[in-house]
Amino acid sequence: ITNNTYPNGESGSNVLSLKEDSNFNIPIIVLTVEQDKRRQFISLGFDEYIEKPLDYKKVINTLCKFDKDIKFSEIKKQ
To answer: What is the secondary structure of 5-72 as a DSSP string?
Structure first.
């Protein structure tokens, strides 16, 4: 999971160069404040897109696309 842009101005798309390695098979999910741009980010090579502010249901649904056995637990304040 990577941000679209970083405070130092670097682009999150730099991580896409990892896909040039034939042994790299980890999905790359981009987090962004850009709304309704999923198609754009997928066309750039990202495997999925999550908009900020985060909606926990969307995050869970997105992560479950890549790992059906992933488990989530609610952390309660004491």
So the answer is: B-TTS-BGGGGGGGGGSTT-----EEEES-TT-HHHHHHHT-SEEEESSP-HHHHHHHHHHH-TT---
